[in-house]
Structure formats: structure tokens, C-alpha cells
């Protein structure tokens, strides 16, 4: 094995060669070097602002719901690694992927019965859009090729997902005029507004002949702005889509697996989509994997076409290692009282973040499930906010006008309080 790099050597190589998410090349600020992680703590290669370890308030972008280095997930990975780490999915199958697909069908709302396993959340949205477009083409209705969504959303960084991200306030304005032009409703209000509901119905009715699908993040809009909205709008969408022969897609990449207090956010409204996108917490943050589920109606429509197959097949589709860990993560989640743990975190965040309302420049504080958000009336000073959070011993990743947390479900009360203190410090400094 090669000699380990010193933190200085590692950062020099990182700065020269590594492109980080949403960052320039070369980078302008050095990332923190994580040496190891366990439970809810990230251990740094060298102290930063007097801290050698940080409580992770982000669940590694909302995926590590069980924390780090979990013995159950470690064992699932080790056991599968000894059998096979990967085998192509074209023409072959294997137990981990079959078990995972069956488990997802079992726990998601009916009638979602068919599962396409893919690489990442963004790709799961690509697959969902392809399913919807091909469904209508196969039924000889190619005019149904546009998507409708509401503003304030975020669905990923690949091509079709970028087209349904907010075109003005989102991250993909650069691609205006190049991306497919979709149909946007105003962002949904937090509380139910009959007038807004009527406007949604009217917009879907007006564009029904050209709409392949409506796609939204249910209840919580994630990276587009961390906004919450009434579940009643999901029922409005379901009814309007049924009335006008339009498919409905729920992007639950961020909200799936308990984050909002229900196993899937759609359950807040008691409705089911035609297509469901999952990712992030699917493997408990261990490996990249996502899934796109659909109803028999969607699958049968595709199968009746001139090209009766879904022409999509990632190299690592159904990866056995990721599938085995995903099965273990789902079983681990459902074997415990996860709902009570999320409620506990929700109550603690409500209590601990209440004081942030008095910080100058804070516009709003909101909490739902294991999600806590402090919204400012100005753009966050990322460097200052991060430095303040690290000074409290907490890792956060603020963006735009938001300082927020999505902690692992195993985060204890003392650590939730420290995370909230970090959020407050970041908001005050940012």
C-alpha cells in the first residue's frame, strides 16, 4: 500500500486535480480533510478552528440516515463483497437486486409494481421522464412530450432533470434556450390555497394535449429552496392528472425513507404517483444507487410500442454490492421505531431553532420531520457561515439564503442541540 499523504500533500493534489460539486477549477477554498467517520461524527485529518471532529448535520447530503460505519451495513457490504461485487445486469440477474426490487414494491404506495435500478437520483429522474415520454409515443400520442412542474423545484443536474428545475432561481439558468422548454406553475404556498389549487387544475387542463407528465417533489422542495407545502396539493395534482390523462411523477429522492415523518412524503396526502423516483438514503449513504418505480399502466404502455423496451441500461445497473446494502438499510430502518426517532428530532429542532428567529437577518425558521431550515433575507456568506458552524463543532453546508440541517436519524438529543447551535452561529455569521 502507498504511504498515506499528509493533509498538506492531499490538499495540494486536491487543489490541482479534483473538481468538487458546484465549484470552480481550480478551487478557491480548501475543503476539510475527513480521515474517518463513525456514528454521527466526521473525524478530521487535522484540527480546524480547534475542532478535530464535527457532528454531521447534513447526513452527507441527506443520505446517511443511520450515521457512519454502521455494523449492520458494514456486514452487508462485507458479505456481498465476498460473493461478488458486480456483475452485468443485461441477461443476468442476482438475489440482492431481486430482493431490493421486491422490497421497494412492498413498502411504496400501490400500484407501483415495476422497478428500474439506476446509478443516481438525477438518473432516476432521467429514467422517469423517458418512461413517460416513451409511454405516450408507444400509444401513438407523440404530441404529449412536455412536462409540468412548479417553480422552486430541483430534480438533478443531468439534462431532462435540469429542464424541470426552477429556470430563474435555480442553478441551471445557464442552459436557458438549450434545454427542453417545460411548463411552470408558481411555487406552491405553504398552506392550502383554493385559488392556487384552481390555477394548478386550469394549467394542467390547458396543456393536457401536450403534457406527458407532471413532476414534483412532494411536500418538501429540497435543493431548490427547502420549502414546505401542503400535502393537499398532491391530491389536486392526482385528480387533475387523472381527469386529463396525464402521468404523475413524484421525485422522492430527498424525502423518501422517513425524512418528512412518513416513510414516503406521498403518504402525507394518501395518494400514489404513476412513477416514483428514489435515491440518496436508499443505501444508507454507503453506495450510489437509485430507483425508478412505475405502475403496470406505464410499463404496459411502453411494451405496446414499436420499440417495446425501455432503452436505458447503465453499466452498474442493479449493482449487487449496492443492492445488498440497500436491502440491509431498509430492513434496519423498518426494524426500529424510525417514526418516533424522526418525531424526536423534529421536536428538538423546533425547540432549539426557535431562538434563531431573533437573529438579525433571519426571515423564517421552519421544521418538518428531521429537517430544520433557517432562511435569511440575504445570500449566505458561505465561508463565514461554515467557519462559525465548525467553531461549534458542526458540519453544515449552507447555500443561497439558507442554513439548514438534515441530521442522521441516530443523532442524540445533545448532538441535535449542538447542530442547532451550529445553525444559529452560521446564520448569525452568514
Automatic annotation (TrEMBL):
Protein name: Adenosylmethionine-8-amino-7-oxononanoate aminotransferase
Stated family: Belongs to the class-III pyridoxal-phosphate-dependent aminotransferase family. BioA subfamily.
Species this chain originates from: Streptomyces chengmaiensis
Site (Participates in the substrate recognition with KAPA and in a stacking interaction with the adenine ring of SAM) residue list: 22
Record GO terms (molecular function): adenosylmethionine-8-amino-7-oxononanoate transaminase activity
Binding of substrate, residues: 61, 154, 280, 313, 397
Subunit structure as annotated in this protein's UniProt entry: Homodimer.
Protein encoded by which gene: bioA
Pfam families hit by this protein: Aminotran_3
Keywords: Aminotransferase, Biotin biosynthesis, Cytoplasm, Pyridoxal phosphate, S-adenosyl-L-methionine, Transferase
